[in-house]
């Protein structure tokens, strides 16, 4: 009996996705929130192109989507603590405010379209072709620059 109990002590159970009360763990909730932000960003993009969206909501949502997808940050990420402030606070706050500006009917439709788009399979072949085109273009530019300067 003692041998059986010792072997069970060293076995590891997989990490649970819920706590003892059946609530989702912090990591699970964080992943769900990140997925919702990604979906809402795409939904805002779609809402900007929808004619039922008011012009002021289009302008604000377009700015938020452009900033969220832009590699340029208001506060550079290399600044300690403050660097990720815009990514963690400003972008979600802007998305939440833009969502409030868009009519509910438009938002429901755009969220459904964004969800359907996220469930479509991605083509690894198309990605490989695009990467190949960029590598060939970069090699051609390097070769032309080398010829021009030698």
Structural features, described:
This protein is an all-alpha fold and 150 residues long. It folds into 2 domains: 104 residues, no CATH class; 29 residues. It is built from 6 helices and no strands. The relative contact order is 0.10. The N terminus is likely disordered.
In what range is the share of β-strand residues? under 5%
Q: What is the helix/strand order? A: HHHHHH
Structural class call reads mainly alpha
Radius of gyration: 24 Å
Give start-end ranges of low-pLDDT stretches.
1-15
Q: Number of helical segments?
A: 6
> Domains counted in the coordinates: how many?
2
How far is the first residue's CA from the last residue's CA? Answer: 81 Å
What share of the residues lie within helices? over 70%
The major pleated sheet works out as: none
- From the spread of the alpha carbons, the general shape counts as extended
Mean pLDDT: 83
Q: How would you describe the oligomerization state of the chains in this entry?
A: single chain
Quick summary of this structure?
Helices cover 71% and strands 0% of the residues. It contains six helices and no strands.
């Amino acid at each position: 009996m003692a041998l059986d109990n010792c072997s069970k002590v060293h076995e590891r159970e997989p990490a649970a996705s819920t706590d003892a009360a059946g609530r989702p763990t912090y990591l699970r909730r964080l992943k769900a929130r990140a997925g919702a932000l990604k979906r809402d960003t795409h939904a805002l993009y779609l809402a900007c192109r929808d004619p039922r969206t008011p012009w002021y909501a289009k302008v604000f949502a377009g700015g938020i989507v452009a900033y969220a997808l832009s590699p340029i940050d208001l506060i550079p990420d290399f600044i300690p603590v403050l660097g990720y402030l815009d990514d963690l606070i400003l972008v979600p706050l802007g998305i939440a405010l833009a969502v409030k500006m868009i009519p509910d009917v438009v938002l429901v439709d755009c969220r459904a379209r964004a969800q359907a788009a996220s469930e479509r399979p991605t083509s690894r072949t198309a990605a490989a072709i695009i990467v190949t085109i960029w590598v060939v273009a970069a090699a051609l530019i390097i070769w032309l620059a080398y010829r021009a300067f030698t």
